[in-house]
Amino acid sequence: MTTLQPVQRISDGDIFGNDSFRSSIEPNLTKTVIDEDVILEAIKDQIASELDPIPQDQTVEEESEEIIDLHSIDVLALSFRNIYKIDNLKGFENLIKLQLDNNVISTIDNLDHLVKLEWLDLSFNSITEIEGLDNLVNLKDLSLVNNQIEMITGLDSLVQLNILSLSNNNISDIDDVRTLRQFENLRCLNLKGNPVCECDDFRKTVLAFLKGLRYLDYQRLEKEDIEKAKEDKQTELLELEDQEKQFESLAAERKASMETNRQFEEANLKGINTLFSDMMKEDSELQKLQRLPGFDEIERDYQVKIEEQTESFINSMLERHREKLTEQQAYDEALTKMKFANEAKCKEVIVEFQRFSKRSLAEYETSKSLGKPNRFILQEIQEKLQQMSDRIMDLEMLMVDQVNHAVSEFENRIKKIKGENLDNSNTFFRSIEDYENYYQTSLNEMVQMIMERSSAGLMNDAEPELLALLVDKDTLQNAIVTSHDNHLGKILKLEETITEAENEMDDNMVGRVREDEYHRNRFRVAEIFDRVEKHSILLK
């Protein structure tokens, strides 16, 4: 068996790994938080260890001060500083590697913003729970060696995890180890020194269940051992794989359902695909009507008709939604081209003025040096400045006209699509109303036939609940009318919701375009005046 030697850290030494030694010195140390002084000291120490030999007349502090750039730091070592709380790391969003080992930290927190972190060392602390790591989705190497952790939790979002070191903790449940199966990129796992390692099935469980694992407790795993463990755990493994397939299938269905719901909401179709089930679910008379012989067939016919009409309506609305998105994209592209062309022309005007201004100011400085400052030159520059301002303003007004024309075209196309949607929506809901009326008529005809059979004594062997229902024809017919009214109310309410949302969505779509253009124009005009004012001040 090939042995992989762990990376040797100071914390791995016999002295600092000895809990009694640590407890003997910690009471004599002042607990600290991560503040500016601690960070700067750590950075200077780090820089000093990396610098070339420093000239004799220059101190480490002087050299360090010259090159420290807090925003560019990607490695920060805060080991052996008796830190008890993680804090004040704002501004270090570019950190890739963070060392907080050999401190007295008890809680993992305030790391959410370090989303680029790939390497985190929290070994030799007093941590009892794995938490506060949800945002560190890029983490690949996590060390929590020599803490007081009892359960493997809080790691679900660390999908890139490659190395996990949990040696010398209090983990005792073999099921915790099985949960690590979800980390498909996990190649190295260190659990040595935990009670769970004493379980008879520990090694077999790890080898059989953890896919892709290559090293366990610093020892390379042999292929034959992995195959043997899988063979011994075949029954459990097959059951787990079946559960995973079911879970993956359900997850895929949920994802597809969420995507469909998202598309439906964007296309103003919310509630359309569930119209039939919603009507029936909210029908207070349905339970009575379901007792009638032949009801299931009538209900099924109603459902099929609605679903066919609904599918056609959904396809039509989705197609028009795609047309809206195409129009939006076309407008955005046209606006970008207009902006680019306008800015290019404005730049030409500005460059022309800058050349004139530079040349004229040189002439003015020459006349000034000769003791005869030519104020006419400054006046001429001022006139040219005003001409530049007027030309840029003319270009901006031209831009406004072009954009307004494009916005009007965009608005007309969106209104056309909206009109088609509203007409289509009206046709759809009228069809649904027709199906509902036919459904009610069918129920009434069925009830009439059942009542005639009952009067002829042909229903005597029916179930007691049905016979009780047939005693009072008015009650039964009232149930059909109430059901019908409930269905119509649901249909009309959904139609009203769809219509209002269609108008609001399209108005907002066009409104945003107009608002964006208004702010663009205001900013541009302010920019022009600001530029002219700054040049005017320089000429005074």
From TrEMBL:
Chain coiled-coil ranges: 223-260, 378-420
Gene Ontology CC annotation, any one: cilium
One Pfam family this sequence matches: LRR_9
Xref: InterPro entries: Cilia_flagella_integrity (IPR050576), Leu-rich_rpt (IPR001611), Leu-rich_rpt_typical-subtyp (IPR003591), LRR_dom_sf (IPR032675)
Alphabetic keyword roster: Cell projection, Cilium, Coiled coil, Cytoplasm, Cytoskeleton, Flagellum, Leucine-rich repeat, Repeat
Main location: cytoplasm
Transmembrane segments: none
Gene3D superfamilies, A to Z: Ribonuclease Inhibitor
Subcellular location: Cytoplasm, Cytoskeleton, Flagellum axoneme
Function description: Cilium-specific protein required for cilia structures.
Family: Belongs to the DRC3 family.
Protein name: Dynein axonemal assembly factor 1 homolog
